[in-house]
Amino acid sequence: MTNDSINRQWVVARRPVGAVKPENFALVQGPVPSLQKGKVLLRALYFGYDAAQRFWLTEQGAGYLPPINLGEPMLTGGIGQVIASDNPSYKAGDIVEGLMSWQDYPLVDPEGPIPLRVLPQADYPLTWNMSVFGVNGLTAYFGVTDGLKVKAGDTVVISSAGGATGLLAGGIARILGAAKLVGIAGGRDKCQWLVRNAGYDAAIDYKGEDLDKRLAELCPQGISCYFDNVGGAILDTVFMHMANLGRILICGAISSGYNDTKMQGPGNYMQICARQLTVQGILLPFYKDRIGEAIAALAKWVKEGRLRVHEEIVEGFERAPELLPTMYAVKNPGKLLLHVADPV
Amino acid sequence: MTNDSINRQWVVARRPVGAVKPENFALVQGPVPSLQKGKVLLRALYFGYDAAQRFWLTEQGAGYLPPINLGEPMLTGGIGQVIASDNPSYKAGDIVEGLMSWQDYPLVDPEGPIPLRVLPQADYPLTWNMSVFGVNGLTAYFGVTDGLKVKAGDTVVISSAGGATGLLAGGIARILGAAKLVGIAGGRDKCQWLVRNAGYDAAIDYKGEDLDKRLAELCPQGISCYFDNVGGAILDTVFMHMANLGRILICGAISSGYNDTKMQGPGNYMQICARQLTVQGILLPFYKDRIGEAIAALAKWVKEGRLRVHEEIVEGFERAPELLPTMYAVKNPGKLLLHVADPV
Predict the structure, then answer these.
(1) B112: how many CB neighbours lie within 10 A of its CB?
(2) Residue A150 neighbours by CB under 8 Å, 6+ apart
């Protein structure tokens, strides 16, 4: 529970080597920060989890965000309520979404690389602003529409299909007319869940099944669109099953654990040449002028019941570090969120 | 010199392990082949060299061509004269260009993966049909226009810049308005030649200079378009200097020597995501309906003196194998061709 005078922080104590662990963070307490020029002081309400957070923890950082120094609180996407503001676009009481950090009272530059967005009054759960109307929904929307250009008849494969972004990407691909939708995920239960609850035609358990063989069976005409959240060996295998002129969206590389900026590259990348593939990246800031369009489309699909929202909400600020490793061995599908406090 | 009754062949005797060597081929002699149903019998006039030939020699082959079995003559692009034809589109005396093999009298399926093309009577050298109006010119044209979409103001970097395709790609990029044109090539002499004779603003000798440092100096605003003929470490380094929303064309991977289908992938490929790059492949058969458009544009530029043709022509069928390794340590810029015989 948030205390009015104490600010708890989960700071980066040691950079992870390999997989991130709760021991990489330390709990420190201090006074609530004072407002600074141009900034906004928030009370944290929810933190969202994102596989890229492991990448943010590297010494170099991700590039699109500043590196996190040791002793500083861990960066996170989140929802907060404005307590005090020195920026005319934000006023006390506003509920906002954007980049903050693991502390009860984040002091935020609202015009940073991921600007704070004031959330509208709405008749849907506040957390949806971090899932379907947040980074995951927007990434899925622009990735499937603008990146992959999914159209009627396409054979679409999505890795990390049970993840927050993958689930929404699958839903959107179906809405755009994908004829076949195949998920790649870890574990038989999750694969069954994807087929039963998330509209997938089939799901491949890359841990228990032969991905190469299953893709050959399920996509005999080749894959027209691949939404890649994992990189590594899975990307390499999918390369060999792409259709001529196929499209690949590079959205993430969770399989690497984002351990290093220097990763294993896809050895089969010359398929880009042999089949004249188009491989495109996605980074949300490049779409900042089109956010309204995306949210309108997503909201319409959700309202019509064509796009479903899957969230898993865990309670308590003290659990922030222990949830992060579960992103890389996630058991439950959908967006993972930590509930920190309620708005006042 | 071609003999009227003996057909010399350079057959694949041993598959190369690592770099290709003349010893991978053996000279055999036999009778001139008889015409077969649907086929065309040629007298070979010129063979062209292409870095991808090393890839064709692997057991699996390149994918877009059938694998070459041991004991069969080496495949090559070439120019020949029709001696006899069982296909109504080709008649004796026609000069044709397309896929053939290292023998005096290739017997060719004219409608194979790289169809035979009857060459028009023209006022330019026959060999230009294999360079500026052949695979290299067409690859450069579609790669720069359709793949990279080079436009006025772009910073364009080309690897293997002194190669047959790279040289033409550089010329075309300049015609389309590239503001800065930087070549990557091996050796100081070749780099000087590129700046003096081929219109490059600068050329980086990747063997003698620090590519990373030089790219930072030469392209401080980032690279908007990269035409990649080499793959490997050079591609990886270029990835780190791409501008936001930059485009990369994957045209080849000569640095790998095309030794294996499983190559070292680019470890920095996550820049595709971090800078939202578009990486596209090129394989000429996908452009087969647009060849006329390309040749018309190329011919116009050549006629206007805006695009220059660079060729190196070597004499004698017996030298076919010894020239192939020089593709991977090429000293002279431009298209490498072997002159076998003259038309009658």
Answers:
(1) 14
(2) A144, A156, A172, A173, A176, A177, A178, A225
Q: What is the pLDDT of residue A201?
A: 97
CB atoms within 10 A of CB A168: 30
Q: What is the mean pLDDT of residues B81-106?
A: 97
Check whether residue B146 and residue B164 sit in a common domain. yes
Domain CATH for A266? 3.40.50.720
ipTM for this prediction: 0.86
Contacts of A261 in chain B (CB under 8 A): 268, 270
pLDDT for A312: 93
> Do both A147 and A107 map to the same domain?
no
- Residue B32: CATH number of its domain: 3.90.180.10
Among A residues 34-93, those touching chain B with beta carbons less than 8 Å apart: 62-64
A159 and A119, same structural domain?
A: no
Q: Is A304 exposed, middle or buried (0-12, 13-18, 19+ CB in 10 A)?
A: exposed
Does residue A249 share a domain with residue A324?
no
> For residues A72 and A78, is the Cβ–Cβ distance under 8 A?
no
- What is the pLDDT, as a whole number, of residue A115? 82
Asked whether the beta carbons of residue A250 and residue B269 sit closer than 8 angstroms, the reply is yes
- For chains A and B, count residue pairs whose Cβ atoms are closer than 8 Å: 109
Looking at beta carbons, which residues of chain A come within 8 Å of B250?
269-270, 272-273
d(CA B264, CA A292): 41
Look at residue B66 and tell me whether its pLDDT is greater than 90. Answer: no
Residue B103 shares a structural domain with residue B200? no
Question: Residues of B with CB below 8 A from A275's CB?
Answer: 281, 283
**Residues of chain B positioned with their CB less than 8 A from the CB of A63:** 274
**DSSP-based three-state secondary structure for A216:** helix
Q: Could you tell me if B50 and B67 lie in one domain?
A: yes
In whole angstroms, what is the distance from residue B290 CA to residue B303 CA?
20
The domain boundary, picked from B268, B285, B302, lies at B285
B282 touches chain A (CB under 8 A): yes
- Count: domains in chain B: 2
Across A6-15, A262-271, B159-168, B246-255, least confident range: A262-271
For residue B252, the model assigns a pLDDT of 80
Q: What is the pLDDT of residue B119?
A: 94
Spell out, as residue ranges, where chain A has pLDDT lower than 70.
Answer: 1-3, 254-262, 330
For chain A, state the CA radius of gyration: 20
